Amino acid sequence: MRPRLGSPLAWIYLAAMFTFILLPVITLVVFSFQDGRLPVPPFKGATLDWYAKVLSDRAMMEALGNSLLVAALSAFVSLLLGFLAASGLARVLLPGSVLMRGLLIAPMTVSYLIIALGLLQMFNQIGLRPSLLATGIGHVVINLPLCFAIIYAAIGAHQRNALRAARDLGAAEWQVLLYVAAPMLAPSLAAAYFLAFTFSWDEFIIAFLLTRFDVTLPVEIWSMLRSGLSPETNAVGSLVFLVSVLIVVTLELSIFRKARK
Amino acid sequence: MPTQLFAPLGAAAALLLSTTSLQAAGELNALIWCDHADPALLAPFEEAHDVRVNVKEYEGTAAGVTILEQSRPGDWDVLVVDAVDVGRVAAAGFLAPLPEGTVDTSSYFPDLVMEDHNSVDGVTYAVTEKFGYNTLAYNKAAVDPADMESLGALWSGKYDGKIAIYDYYLPVLGLVGLQAGIDTAGLDTAALETIKEPLMALKAASRQVSDVVASQTALATGEVDILIGGGEWLTAVLNAENADLDWTIPAEGGLLWAQSIGVVAGTEREELAQEFIRYITSPDGQARLATSSCYWGMPANAAAADVLSDDEKAILRWDDQADYLARAQLYPVPDAETDAAMQDLWTEMLQN
Amino acid sequence: MSLERQEKRHGAALVAPALLWAVAFFVLPFAAMVAMSTAKMVGREIVPGPDFGNYIRIFTEPPLTRAIFVSLEITAIVTILSVLLAWPLAWIIATRVPAKWQRLALLLAVLPFWTSYVVRSYSWALVLGEKGIVMNTLVGLHILSEPVQIMATRTATVIGFTHFFVMLLTLTIYSNLVQLSPNYARAAEDLGASRWQVIRLVILPLTLPGVVTGAFLTFVLCIGDYITPQILGGNNELTLPQLIMLQLGRRGDYPMASALSVVLMAMVTLAYAGCARWLKMDRV
User: Fold this and answer.
1) Phi and psi dihedrals of A38, rounded to 5?
2) What is the pTM of this model?
3) I want to staple A31 with a disulfide (CB 3.0 to 4.6 A). Which of A39, A107, B279, B293 is the partner?
C-alpha cells in the first residue's frame, strides 16, 4: 500500500488520538507552573515555586536516588541472569528446555500484585525486612523474563555458529560470553537493560508493599498524593517525564539508530 | 558497548555510598499518622539531637497494628495512635510504659489529658498530642449553613450527588450512628444492623468515598459540597485557597478524634523516644504539629497558644473549643469481632 | 559423546542461576501464598488450615463476588476499546504517515509512557474533574449545558486505563503491520478487492498475533492494577486488587488477601489459555 495522503478522515482520527494521548501530559506540565495551590483551571499565572519545592524536598530526592539505585542494580542482575540463561538455552537442547523456558517466562503473565504479595509473605517468614533489597529482588523477578525473552529471540543461527566457532578455537566459556556473545548481542542487551530499568523505575505495587522507610519514587509520589493536593505533584511528574524523554531521545539517536544500520 | 551500558551502575553505586555517608549519628523510627511526616515538624528535633527521624505513615489503628504485628522488637521506637485505642494496643504488648513525669500535662486542655484512655491498670502508656473533630465540612457558598445544623440534611435528598464520604470507617459509622440516635459507645454488632440501611442510603446519595486528598480536591473544586467525616483538619489547609470551606458540629453531635503518642515496646532507643515525645508535646512542637502540612488540628497542650499566631488560632477556632468539646463524642472502640463486622459493613458500602 | 555432554553441562550451568532465582522468588512465594490462602483469620490470629472458608466466602458473599465481576467487566471494556482505538491509529501511522515521519509519530503516540505511572492516573483526575479542562471546553463550546460527572465513576477508570493501553497496543500492532509485506495488499488489490476488503480480509487477519499479544498484556496488566481504579474510581465500586489491598492494609487479613490473589491468578491463567495459540510470549 502506497502512502495515500489527503484522506481527511485518517488525519482527523490521527489528530483526535494524539489529543487524547497527549492531553493529560500537557495538562500535567502546564499546571505544574500554577501560581496557586490547586492544579486545576483557571490558570492563575506562572511560577517555578513548585519545582523549587520539589528539588528541596529531602524525602523526594532520596526516593529519586533509591529508585535510580534499585532500577540500575535490579536491571543489571536481570540482564546478567537473562543473558546467561539465554546463551545456555540457545546453544544446546537440554532435557526439559521447553519447561525451563516456560518457567523463566511465567512471571510475565502474573500480576505484579500477586508477585508482591507472595514475596511479602515469604520475606516475613524468613525474616527479611521490607527494604530496597527486597524491592530489588522483586524487580528482578518481573524483569528477568523480559531480558531473557529479548536476548533469547536475538540469538539466531548466525550467532550460534559464531559462538560455536569461538569455542572450537579453544576460548574459555567466560571468554566466549564476554568477548563474542556480549558484543554481538549488544543492541539487544542494551534494549533489555533499558526496558528493565524503565519497568523497575516506574514500578509501584511491589515497591509499595516491600519497602518501609527507604521508598522509591513512585511510592513517595503516591504518599504525596495522599497527603495533600498541590501542583508539587505536577512538578515531580513533569520532571520525571522530562528526564525520561531526554533519555529516550538520546538512546533513540545513539544506540538504537546505530543498531539499525 | 558493555562499558557504556554499565555506566549507570557506577553512578548508582556512587550514589549509594554518598547517601550512606550523609546519614546522621542516630535514627528514630516512628509509625505515625501523616501529619507527623512534615519536615518542618521533624527538623528542629533532628537538628537538636543529630538524629534522623524515619517515619512510616498509616491510616487507622487496624492498619497500624498490622504493621506492628509484622515487625520485630526494635523495629519501631515511637507510635502515634488514636487515643481511644491506646488501651488495646498496650494490652497487645506493643507499647512500653511511660515513666511518670515524662510529660507535664498541667497546661493541657483538661478534657484532653484522657488519663483513662492513655493508661491501663494505672500504668501510663501514652500522652495525648492533638485533637479535632470528624463532623461535617461543607462549602458555604453552595450549602445553606442552616441545613448543616442537622445530620439529617444528608438524607433529605437536597444534596444528592454533592456529598463525599471520608474513607475511614470508625468516624463515619460513628456519625451515621449519631444520626440514628446511637452513641458511639453503643455501636455494637446489633447497632450496626440498625445503621446499615441509612449507611447504604448515604452511599446512594454520595458522589464518592475518598481519602484525605481526593476529598480536599472534590470540595475545593466544587465537585462536592459536603464531606461527612470532615472537619477543621480538612478545611484549614485549604483556607487560603477557598475561604468558603467551613465546618460545623450539627445538633446530633460530632466525633472527637484525639491522637496519642507513646514509646513502642522493645525499642533500643527509649531515651531518645521519650525525648521525641517531650518535643512533640512542648509548646513549640505542638504549634508545629497543629499546623503541619498533611492536616491541621488542635494541640492538646494549651500552652501552644503562645506560639501560634492569631490567624492560625482563628482558623483552628481556638476560642470555640469548650463548646465543641462538650458536644463531641469519642470514637467507637470496637473489640476484634465488632471491628471485623464494621469493616465488612464498610466493604459492603463501598461495593454497593 | 563427551563433547556434547560437556556442552550440556555448560548450558545447564548457564541456565541454573536464572532458574534458581525463578524458583526461589517466584515459585516458592506463590506456593506460600496458596498455602496461606487456606489458612483462617480468627480475631487477629492466623490459624493454619487447610480450610477453604475464604474461597467459600469469596463466592458467596456479594461484596466479594461482585469484585470479580467489576474487575472482569472493566478489563473487558478496556481491552476491547483499546484494540478498537489502537488498530486504526497503528494502521494510519504505518500506511499514511510518510516513512521518514513514522518514527516520530510513533514516539509521540507513546510519549506519555515516560511519565510516572502514578502521576499519569493523577493527571487524568485533573483533566476529568468538574473544573477540569474537558468539562471547561465542552461547556465553553456549549456542547454541554453543565458539567457531567466523569471523575469518580467507572468511566473515569476506563478512560485512564484505555489511555495507557492504547499506547501499548499501538506499539504491538504497528510492529506487526510494518513486518507485513506490501505484496499481500497489492496482490489482493490486483485481484480486484476493494480497499475495505483488503483491510478486512487480508491485513486484519495478518495482524491478529500483534493484536492478541497486546490484548493479553492489556488484560493481565489491567486486571491486576490497583492505582488507576483507586485514583479515578472514587471508591464507588471495588476491583479485585482494591479488595486485596483493603484486606492487607486495613485488616492484615493475609489469608483472605491470598485467596483473592489466587482467584485473580486463576482468571489470568484462563485468559492465557484462551489466547495461547496466538501468543508467542518467548518471542515478544
Assistant:
1) -110, 120
2) 0.92
3) A39
